[in-house]
Structure formats: C-alpha cells, structure tokens
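Predict structure. Chain length: 222.
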Amino acid sequence: MKGWGEVGCVEARSGSPPLTPCVRLPPWVLMPIITFMGVGVIAYLETPDTWWDAVLATQLCPHCLCLCRRHSVRERAAWTQFLLRISERIPVLRIYCPRCRHTYTILPDFLTPRHRYQVPVREAVVSGAEPLPACGAQTVTRWTRAFRQALPLAIHHVTAWILTAGVPLRGQEQRFLTGEMRGYAGLQLGRHLAAQYGLDTLASSVFGWVNHTCDPPHAFVL
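Prediction complete.
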C-alpha cells in the first residue's frame, strides 16, 4: 500500500537479506519517547526549545537508527494534585523518522502516555509519601494496582540495565540485583547503586528513572 513504511528492512534495501522480518506500519504510527527534560514543569517551561534542540541533535529512531527530524509541537495535559488539583497543559515536541516514517512524541520523564497526572504525583501516592491526595479513592486504588502489576517488570528493566552496564559489582550488590530487590524501596536502592557506579540517574523521580532504563525507549513501565 502506498504511503506505508517498512521497519526492519534497512539491510534488504542495500541488497542483503534483513536481519529481522519486515513489519509494515502506517506513517502516522505515534509512539512516545521518554527522556529527562528538567526536574518538573517549571524547569521544563523555562527553556523548552533548549531541551528540544538537544533531542533533535541526538535522537535516533529506535527502529531503524536514522536521525529524527522535527515534526510539530502539540499540547499535553500535565496535572498536579495534592490538596488542590492544578490542571495545566504544556507543549511537547513531536519528531518523525524520514526513513521508516514513524512519528514519536517526546515526553519529559515527569509524564507518561495515557496519564494526565504528573509522574511525581502518582509516585508520591503509591509510595505512601502523600497519604491524603485529593484525587479520590478510586484513582488512588487504580494507581496502586497498576504499580503493583508493573513492579516486576520495572525491577527486571532496572536490574538488566545495571547488570549489562559492565560495572564491577561486588557479590553482595549482584545478589541484591538478582534476588533481593523488592518494592518501591528496592527501586530507590537500585537507583542509588547505579549512581555509585556513575551510571545515568538524572531524572525527575524514581518512576521517571525506571522509564529511562527501558529498551526500546518507548517501552515505558511506570
């Protein structure tokens, strides 16, 4: 069908068989890429163009490794709520791959797809740091259930990321990563351990940091 792009077929175009089967996707396929763009909305909105320029200079398409280009800017909900709900909409960058024609939304790590509330708000609720949010009991229950369901995958991503980084872990640290890492406290300790070995832990929150470890980068967890 005209206008559809092939993913995984870069080698085939150069005359050799592709390493992976071709997957035909429409050019309007939209995926998120989560990255650090400041510790919160205020820092992000001070210089959004600076963050966007950094993305455009370095961001490769996760599917075909082509340098992406600017597509457009759209607004995105970024709610914060503890005692009072503050509804806010912020601009986010969209980029596209000129080769496979995927389109990506670049989200600061204090946001995730399908969530209007900022990540630090949800993290504070499920970790118990904010015991009396004003968003309602049903919302809290939904966030807590989603966190418990995603926790095993989050721990898997974090441990795999640290273990494959090639840092000289001690025996106790390896045992912690492979068997003793549990719960939200385990994610915090994992981030602390990564920082000790100089791995990138720059993020607006623990949840945001976990999402940074995902591969491909649009496979967010929390």
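Summary: The two ends are 36 Å apart (CA to CA).
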